[in-house]
Amino acid sequence: MSASLLRRGLELLEAPGRGEAPRGLQRGQNGPRAAAAARRRKRAPEPGRNKATVKGRVVKSAIEEYHKKKAVDHLRENLRYMLKRRFVANKAITEQVLAQNRGRKSKDQPPKKAAKKKPEGTVFTEQDFRKFEREYFGRP
């Protein structure tokens, strides 16, 4: 609804004696002050409007952009979730996931575990040596 239609509707609904104010109380639009006031109103910029920007473009706040793009730390929630559950994953599956997330560089590879060496022992007993000595050297 336009402002003029609204004004006309209000004029029709007003009480008969209250239509117009006395001449001295009315805001006059004639005179030197009225022209200056009209010029000031015309010249007054809209609040928040920056003429240096492209028409229709909204100036973004750097702080709001920073907060939007700031990384969110989910560590506490994840720990609470993990500690709440008592489910333990299969070791083979865990190793597979770790292998997938590991890089190909040597610095990303875990240190190789050295296989435990069995203590070197002989298969021959002391009796076998004595028997061999007797047979080979001919000593009793």
TrEMBL record:
<dbReference type="GO" id="GO:0005730">
    <property type="term" value="C:nucleolus"/>
</dbReference>
<protein>
    <recommendedName>
        <fullName>Active regulator of SIRT1</fullName>
    </recommendedName>
</protein>
<comment type="similarity">
    <text>Belongs to the AROS family.</text>
</comment>
<feature type="region of interest" description="Disordered">
    <location>
        <begin position="98"/>
        <end position="124"/>
    </location>
</feature>
<dbReference type="Pfam" id="PF15684">
    <property type="entry name" value="AROS"/>
</dbReference>
<dbReference type="InterPro" id="IPR023262">
    <property type="entry name" value="AROS"/>
</dbReference>
<keyword id="KW-0539">Nucleus</keyword>
<dbReference type="GO" id="GO:0019899">
    <property type="term" value="F:enzyme binding"/>
</dbReference>
<feature type="region of interest" description="Disordered">
    <location>
        <begin position="13"/>
        <end position="56"/>
    </location>
</feature>
